[in-house]
């Protein structure tokens, strides 16, 4: 059995994962899949406030397909991405960007597709996997209200679970904590922009008018509040997911966009009769500038509040799968969990310049995205969007963008970097 530095017989658990959402469950699933034997998994507790999982979000991502074995080549041995492949409900070989009645369609020459995972499939599959491992407990209807390092381990206060005393509180101890709570709870610094969106899944009486292409940024436009676009996924001949998205300088409640989403829906569906079957909404911080540092090195922050989302796009699902695998390997081999690895400095810097340009001049955003869509080939742009660009891809992206505003924002970003470097800051702020 591998040595496990997490093992501390005096604590209730070797590992406590705060939050059974995408990151928490992905990590637990990766531990189960990567452990040679089920008993090699450390004693793990996942604490989740929800009493049951619902189909609360659609996870989409680009992945490369293998012609013989649909969707698997991109995993390159990664079991985490293989697992996501098993969850895919629908894939599109082509996707579209549009603004002011001009559209650009992209399709990959290298087998990339745009994939859709309904979150309920993910939750149910992982719950089933975890139920087979006696070392992992998923405790629902419970939240963590306090974390405190004490001698030898970390102490957590749990509230309102089915497994608590009359007072509604229970104290448990852990050798290590992976904390996936969302930004509000972990006190992150302000984001450069917030991607705020509200989506409606509708079932139409008659077949809809769209061909089998994912409209990832449809009708990009600008109003007094900034940049916005629609997102339209034809899920089958009668079902559409229509989302209204804003890149907002301030965080808005996602629910406030429901009227805009209804308006987008009316535009997309025209006179067709439809029934709304599901809603989803969220706020994804883009380009966070700082994070609270946990009070103890055995306490790791991860998830959206700690670098899970790619700053310039807000895409996080696949990045979380990759992190979960790396983190699980670290736990199983060295007994040590790890947070989100920082992005490559040049990529991070380009993302920040890009975000700064949009934040300071939202009217330019449709032109920026349409320039990328028209001037950069689908595969180059995909490598950029999915965190794996080579130098030529980065160069192609830079050359496609209008120079003057970007140069201005590049200088502003360099200045911001100097100011940041002169302050005391966390590791995550370093470019
Ligand atoms: C509607 C929606 C659609 C999205 N679509 C995409 C997409 O298409 N592609 C993509 O790449 N990304 C997408 N994202 C972004 C990202 O992938 C998801 O937000 C993802 O769920 C982030 O994972 P996470 O673990 O950081 O957060 P979550 O999945 O939200 O998990 C955090 C967990 O912590 C729990 N929690 C909160 N407080 C406590 C507490 N005090 N104690 C214990 N637990 C607590 C929460 O209940 C939650 O389960 C989407 C996000 C949303 C909201």
Short précis:
The protein is an alpha/beta fold.
Could you walk me through the main structural features you see in this protein, from its secondary elements to its overall organization?
The chain has 431 residues and is α/β, with parallel strands linked by helices. The chain is built from 11 helices and 17 strands. The strands form 3 sheets. Strands 1, 2, 8, 9, 10, 11 and 17 form a 7-stranded mixed beta sheet that branches. The chain is globular and about 65 Å long. The two termini are 39 Å apart. Flavin-adenine dinucleotide binds next to helix 1, strand 3, strand 9, strand 16 and helix 6.
CATH architecture of the largest domain: 3-Layer(bba) Sandwich
CATH class of the largest domain: Alpha Beta
**From the helix content, strand content and strand pairing, which structural class follows?**
alpha/beta
Order of helices and strands: EHEEHEEEEHEEEEHEEEEHEEHHHHHH
Ligand list: flavin-adenine dinucleotide
Q: Note the gap between the termini.
A: 39 Å
- The overall pLDDT, averaged over residues, is 87
Tell me the total number of β-strands: 17
Question: What does the oligomeric state look like here?
Answer: single chain
List the helices and strands and how they pair.
Layout: E1 13-18, H1 22-34, E2 44-47, E3 58-64, H2 79-87, E4 90-92, E5 94-99, E6 102-107, E7 112-118, H3 119-131, E8 136-139, E9 143-150, E10 153-159, E11 169-179, H4 183-186, E12 191-204, E13 214-223, E14 226-236, E15 239-248, H5 258-269, E16 274-288, E17 299-301, H6 317-334, H7 345-360, H8 365-375, H9 378-385, H10 391-400, H11 403-422
Parallel strand pairs: 1-2, 1-11, 2-8, 5-13, 11-17
Antiparallel strand pairs: 3-7, 4-7, 5-6, 9-10, 10-11, 12-15, 12-16, 13-14, 14-15
The structure holds flavin-adenine dinucleotide (FAD).
